[in-house]
Amino acid sequence: MSLVKPFDKLPTLNSAAILLVGTDESQQQQLAEAILKEKKIFKINIHVATSLPLPAERDHIRPRIDLIVFMINMQSKHSLRNVEASLSHMDANFFLGKVCFLITGVGRMNHCSVEMNAVRKLGNLYCSPVLFCELESEGIRVATAQRLLRMLQICAGHVPGVSALFFSSLMKSSIDE
Amino acid sequence: MDETVAEYIRRTVLKIPRHEIMEMLTTWDFLSKTQLQTINMHQIKESISQEVVELCEVITSIVNDQTMSNSHNFVFTISGIFSCITGEETDSFNLADFKYNFKRSLRSALKNVTINFREYEDNATWIRIAWGTQYTKPNQYKATYVVYHSQTPYVFISSLRNRIPLLCQALVHASNYHDIHEMELRSRCLDSLKDIVFKRYCQTFQTYHPRPLQERNVAPEKVDPRIIQVNKREKERIQSVNQEVFGEGLQPKIEFAQYKLETMFKGEPEMDILTEKEPFRCVVKFSSPHLLEALKSLAPAGMADAPISPLLTCIPQKARNYFKIKERKGILSASCLGP
User: Fold this and answer.
1) Which of A119, B180, B308, B335 is the most exposed place for a label (fewest CB within 10 A)?
2) Helix (H) or strand (E) holding A161
3) In this structure, are residues B185 and B91 in contact, taking their beta carbons and an 8 Å threshold?
4) What's the whole-model pTM score?
5) Using an 8 Å Cβ cutoff, are B27 and B70 in contact?
6) B30-39, long-range: CB within 8 Å, 24+ apart, which pairs?
7) Which residues, 6+ apart, have CB-to-CB distance to B41 below 8 Å?
8) Is it the case that residue A117 has pLDDT exceeding 80?
9) What share of chain B has pLDDT > 90, as a percent?
10) In a mutagenesis test of the B interface, which of A36, A50, A72 is the best target, namely the one with the most B β-carbons within 10 Å?
11) CB within 8 Å: A24 and B301
12) Does B139 score more than 70 pLDDT?
């Protein structure tokens, strides 16, 4: 089993790779298709996995992963546990802005089995931004896809002058100031 | 005609939705075609039902036949009752004898009952029983239905609480079996109960594949090549484990599974409360419009690990959906025992 490292491979020209980690396959597929529909100027590869570590067999063909998105479904404790288990199989260098948590299912409050505090603590502990979205709604799905695409561009280094470390500004709330 | 019967017909007709009334009356088959044609369908339902009652005035004792023919309209929970040991069983089942013995046995215990029989093609005998007490007439609205397949030791009873011993005694006596006891299997769908108990559903067999076989020709989905599934092998494993456990084909339809826990509470040793004194009593109930299909889809949907707990998957094999879980002596783990 291989540890995913952010800087151990050379980047390919004008392309970026995003890894979606989560238990709900249909949601991942929906998000992946939404991302692919967006207009972009670089080539994109979306890898969809249920958990980390990734199987070692295809390691040599896998491109460098620029952004990892952990998908947690608030209605399933199983998804939270899966993500927590996967987080320990990552190289620490990823947490400099190349990781993001995507939370779905917050819209139906009475079906939630994961607490909001748990998710916020996770974001704070791993210094990564936490995004909320409802993938069933078309508009929100498109907006999330656009956001992720922009983050991916920055993480892959395609935007001059902006680096992934700037994402820490997404985590500060105005109350903290 | 008895006025309770007339009232019963009137209320039954009122319950039927308007567009289905003509169809229902034709299936009931106790009014002739000419009589049916005289009913004016465009009036309010009360008048329609009144007309039907008037036409029925001339016919006696049709009440109970027609309710059994439209049984699919009735939502009733059925408990499967298992008749276990065969005592002196006669070689051939004689329906007339059965009916006679059953009626006699039940009437000897309780005078005020209405009993009706009806046979169907697949060897099923439907018995409709309306109960009364010593002083009151039988209540036609809260009737019990009993389905008995003569070649099998199983009887299906729609739910009733207080008359079970009487009914069981009559059944045992009439069918010449030795004993009868209740199975812990309940559902709204009679066909599913029959499927489980007669083993008509798709059963699974223990197979051993060192490598998963590529059996089915799955048409390749139109997947964008830019989306790469990293854990494809794991997903295939989950599918094959699921297949092994649940089998192919539709599962029988059950709505509930109830687990009564009588296990010890396993907490921190420092906490004095509840440790090792008394079993922790708890009831866990799973409910769904179609429980077994929902359990089958849990692992592929990513909501549970495959393989799923055998307590959930043993429901069709053990033919029960009400469980009592006690401590296994010696090893501290829950096991599935039952009365």
Assistant:
1) B335
2) none
3) no
4) 0.69
5) yes
6) B30/B56, B30/B59, B30/B62, B30/B65, B30/B66, B31/B55, B31/B56, B31/B59
7) B18, B21, B22, B48
8) yes
9) 1
10) A50
11) yes
12) yes
The most confident of A51-65, A96-110, B186-200, B213-227, by mean pLDDT? A96-110
Residue A20's pLDDT is 93
d(CA A144, CA A28): 13
In B71-101, which positions are buried (b, 16+ CB within 10 angstroms) versus exposed (e)? beeeeeebbbbbbeeeeeeeeeeeeeebbeb
Per DSSP, B77 falls in state -
**What per-residue confidence (pLDDT) applies to B38?**
72
Q: Does pLDDT of B61 surpass 50?
A: no
Burial grade of B185 (CB within 10 A; 0-12, 13-18, 19 or more)? buried
Q: Are B5 and B67 in contact (CB under 8 A)?
A: no
Which residues of chain B are within 8 Å of residue A78 when distances are taken between CB atoms?
Answer: 302-305
CA–CA gap between residue B76 and residue B73 (Å, rounded): 9
- Assigned token pair, B72: 């699919």
The ipTM value here is: 0.75
Say if residues A32 and A48 touch (Cβ distance below 8 Å): yes
